[in-house]
Design goal:
Elements lengths: L1 E4 L5 H10 L7 H8 L5 E7 L2 E10 L4 E9 L8 H12 L4 E3 L5 H6 L14
Parallel strand pairs: 4-5
Antiparallel strand pairs: 1-2, 2-3, 3-4
Helix pairs in contact: 1-2
């Protein structure tokens, strides 16, 4: 199993993982667009040339890394793969704090994240 930066050839697999979670605001076009900027970074977790999961994050490389999404294929959950992706981000930016907004609080609490305030979102 390897963790590597995603490339454009991974767009379809990443899009499929978004769809499997019913995150329908991530259209195929939007996922391709995310790869067109240098603002979003994707890491993929791959085994036997199949993408089992990914994380997308943004960072200023100094103070804050924001974990935007993390998805692990349902058949590969509860094996520590999400935690491995987060650890890889932390290795890349060890001096930054990792911030996120979550609907999976139990997962983040289990890997030592602490709640801080509340989150808000203004949608389109």
């Amino acid at each position: 199993m390897i963790i590597r930066p995603a490339s454009r050839k991974d767009c379809q697999a990443i899009y499929s993982l978004y769809q499997s979670e019913k995150w329908l605001s991530f259209t195929e076009e939007k996922v391709r667009s995310l790869f067109s900027t240098n603002l979003s970074h994707y890491l993929v977790l791959e085994e036997d040339q199949k993408i089992l999961g990914f994380s997308r994050y943004l960072t200023d490389e100094v103070l804050t890394t924001f974990l935007a999404e993390i998805i692990i294929d349902k058949s590969h959950r509860r094996k520590g793969l999400g935690q491995q992706l987060i650890e890889e981000i932390h290795k890349k930016y060890p001096l930054t704090r990792i911030e996120l907004i979550s609907e999976a609080d139990g997962f983040y609490r289990a890997i030592s994240f602490k709640p801080v305030g509340t989150g808000f979102r203004k949608s389109e």
